[in-house]
Structure formats: structure tokens, C-alpha cells
Amino acid sequence: MDVIVLTIFPEMVEPYFSYGMIRKAHEDGFIRVSAMNIRDYAQGKHRVTDDKPYGGGCGMVMKPEPLAAAIDSALQKSPGAKVVHMTPQGRPFNQAIAQELSLCDGLIFLCGRYEGIDERICQNYIDDEISIGDYVLTGGELGALVVADAVIRLIPGVLGGDDSAEKDSFAHGLLEHAQYTRPCEFDSMRVPDVLLSGNHALIDKWRLETSLIRTFLKRPDLLGIRSFSVEEKKILKNWYLKLEHIIQGDGQK
Ligand code: ADE
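That is the input. Now the predicted structure with adenine docked in place:
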């Protein structure tokens, strides 16, 4: 997959691609990541990329011609790529959108600055608009990196284990189970015995249960929009029975 970030600050974006999994994915040929400077596509001695808004008002707007030329050039490098405009007005980003984008041949992220980009670019050059949250950043670069990172790790082969992404938080609408590593005892707290048992059926059951508990405690909204497997329903009913028992025994001890 090609990942191209269009920005007036490529120096801000490029270092992120030089570390960890993304660097490895690039070196191993799973992705080709790059940043292109929109200013290189601006005209005139000063290569101006912004101008005053028609109708007045504060701030500046990114001019359409350099943006159009930069997008065209990126599309020549990656013909089938999807052009994604990073903006607080876009679709709220989540794991399902990351999955969807991971199937694209290429992604071209257009990062606006100032008061945004000329509307005619949004109408004719953009395939998708994505927001990384209901707040306003000074530009789209951080958003592009967030989305690129979440998407790249889903490309088959990029993560170490075959099914690492399968087990992610959100992959099945639940938060991921608790994780432990050595030492077995830390700050007088022991790793749960079941994880040392070597019994993988029991370990899977424990993991599913801690996933459900965490989701219930931390993100109950996720449970409301999800259906449950037979095994999950069994766990939930068991809690229900235990709680019922506690409530019935209220004050008796
Ligand atoms: N650019 C500015 N704010 C943004 C946001 N919340 N998401 C994506 N791009 C942005």
C-alpha cells in the first residue's frame, strides 16, 4: 500500500515513519510511505499556498491550485489511491474505518492548515473526510499520522503474530483483556494463576471474561451496540446470577 501525506510541513511527518513497525513495514515492502510538500506545487517566487477568505473574516484559506496540483502528482505516483482530507468535519475515526481503509491500494492524506482548504477542492478532489475527534488541531498532520498508523498495523504481515490485530481492543467490539509479563510477582501482586496453568481453553475463557468486565466497566457504550456469542451470554448470565445472589443476601452477614 502507498501512503502519501500532502502537507506544507513534511519535516513534521517524515520522522514518524522512521521508527518501529512503520519503518519495518516500509523496509519489508508492505508499504511505501512518503510526505510531499504542497508548497512545491505553488506558483511564483514565494510559492504562496494560502490567501485571504472571500467574504472577509479572520485567518487564511489554503489556495486550490497548489492543492489540486499536489493531489494530481500524488495520484500519478499511486493511481488507485483514495484521497482523504483530514478535517474536524469528517467521519469520526474508529477501528472499523481503519479496517475499511486497510483494504485500499493507496491512501493520500491531505492536511489542511489555517482556516482550512478551498471548498472546491473538497468537491472535486476528495474521496473521504476523516476527523480524529471533536476538537480542532492546528493542522491535519497529527490526524493523518494517527489514521496511517492505525491502518498500517492492520495490513496482513505488518504485525508480528498472524492474529495480533484480530485480538486488538475494538476488533470485536470489546476492549482487549488484561496483559501480564514477567516477573510473576510485582509490588506484592501476582499474575493470575490461570495464566500460568498452561491450559489454553481456560486461558481463553479467562481472557474473554476480563475483556467483557473491562468493557462493562470502562466503555459500557460499546456493549450496547453489539450482539453476544453463546459463550459471552453464558458469562454475562453467570454475573447476573452472582449479583442477584449478593442482592438477595443483602445485610444477612
Ligand atoms: N484538522 C484539524 N482538526 C482536526 C481533527 N480533529 N481531525 C482531523 N483533522 C483535523
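Residues 2-152 form a domain with the Alpha/beta knot fold (CATH 3.40.1280.10).
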